[in-house]
Amino acid sequence: MPHKLLILEGDGIGPEIMAEARKVLEVLRRDLGLALEVEQGLIGGAAYDATGSPLPEQTLRLAREADALLLGAVGGSQYEHLPRELRPERGLLGLRSELGLFSNLRPAILYPQLAAASTLRPAVVSGLDLMIVRELTGGIYFGQPRGIRTLSTGEREGYNTLVYRESEIERIARSALDIAMKRDRRLCSVDKANVLEVSELWREVMTSVAQDYPQVQLSHMYVDNAAMQLVRAPKQFDVVVTANMFGDILSDAAAMLTGSIGMLPSASLDGAGKGMYEPIHGSAPDIAGRSRANPLAMILSLAMLLRYTLDQADLAARLERSVGAVLDAGWRTQDILSQRAREASTVQMGDAVVAALRST
Ligand code: IPM
Ligand code: MG
After folding, report:
1. Choosing from 248, 277, 308, 335, which is the catalytic residue?
2. Does the active-site annotation cover 248?
3. What are φ and ψ of residue 38, in 5° steps?
4. Does the predicted model carry a pTM greater than 0.90?
5. Are strands 156-159 and 147-150 parallel, antiparallel or unpaired?
6. N or C: which terminus of the chain carries fewer CB neighbours within 10 A?
7. Are the C-beta atoms of 161 and 144 separated by less than 8 Å?
8. What is the rounded CA–CA span in Å between residue 201 and residue 164?
9. How much is the pLDDT for 198?
10. 3-class secondary structure, 352
11. What residues sit around ligand 2, an ion, with C-beta below 5 angstroms?
């Protein structure tokens, strides 16, 4: 039985970058023998516009049936006035939580061809290859109780809850340790154990699970220091594991080390290999509809899908090499543009990857 893929374009630049990923998918299926059944669903603002919900029942059903999901981006300023439960982001958070996609892999790799695009000196970032493993279905993003209440004084108070159970910490620890085993075997767990009890438990469980992985060198770092170290000397890290909100923040910083957030893919996995794959960047409404967006993070998300859910490491590597070849040839979308580059539209970049994929 072929695997089932659900495509969710979403909002803003989502449909444009997905169009390029679809071209790549076509080549993989038609020319390179990838067997895959493809469905399409609505998510985010687009889903709200069509059905009144950012995560319609139909999409959830298709998502449950699928082995993998490929998602563009969600969000847009036209939805900001909506009650929280109807906002596009809820669609994304709902999928993560309904599907139990607790392990979020966010690689930050600096392509040597793009060293000049980083705001940091080449010596600091060249050769950068780190992986952030972010816990994705727990922590303060989902903790109860939460809300805004009115105190007896009449003043309003907003509150959220940061909680982690041992079992939640243990499974993300194993996920990160497994990944460290396939890399340089160094894992840095980032927390705020000098202030938070949750982090104290996090540190304890990390340390104890790591005893099952004697070859992995485990270290711990406070999140404020980690933020500083990421921009001071990012190459000291191999794999970083951290809680949901810390990971949200640190992964944006890590992405920017590589020159553009438009280059970085991500995978969100459950315990059984099912995954949702999406670029780290958002829906970029400011450039939507103008063929200016960089489709490479979207295309590289497809490469992660090949590797982690479909077990097609060779095809994944081939697709990643094609992206490298396109950069070698000098093609650049505006976000990574430097001197002597060939400025490409979203469509041209996608076409260049397709051509490279056919000829590698
Ligand atoms: C991310 C995004 C999301 C998050 C938003 C869109 C809800 O910033 O994937 O990093 O905060 O997790
Ligand atoms: Mg984020």
Report:
1. 248
2. yes
3. -115, 130
4. yes
5. antiparallel
6. N
7. yes
8. 8
9. 98
10. helix
11. 248
Closest Cα partner for 322 from 291, 293, 294, 349? 349
The Cα 104–Cα 44 span in angstroms is 19
- DSSP codes of every residue in 106-171: EEEE--GGGGGGSSS-HHHHTT-EEEEEEE-SSGGGT-SS-EEEE-TTS-EEEE------HHHHHH
pLDDT at 115: 86
Residue 331's pLDDT is what?
94
pLDDT at 261: 87
| Residue with CA at minimum distance from ligand 1 atom 1 | 248
Catalytic-role residue among 224, 286, 311, 328: 224
Euclidean distance between CA atoms 205 and 215, whole angstroms: 17
Beta pairing partners, 58: none
3-state SS, 32-94, equals CCCCEEEEEECCHHHHHHHHCCCCCHHHHHHHHHCCEEEEEECCCHHHCCCCHHHCHHHHHHH
Whether the CB-CB separation of 222 and 191 falls below 8 Å is answered with: yes
How much is the pLDDT for 97?
A: 96
Please state, as a whole number, how many other Cβ atoms lie within 10 Å of the Cβ of residue 347: 14
Q: Is 92 in the pocket of ligand 1 (CB under 6 A)?
A: yes
| Span 39-64, pLDDT tens digits | 999 999 999 999 999 999 999 999 99
Q: Is 252 in the pocket of ligand 1 (CB under 6 A)?
A: no
Active site residue 129: no
Element housing 180 (H / E): helix 166-181
CA of 249 to the centre of ligand 2 (A): 6
Closest by CA position to 71, among listed 16, 152, 7: 7
Burial environment of residue 3 by CB neighbours within 10 A (0 to 12, 13 to 18, 19 or more): middle
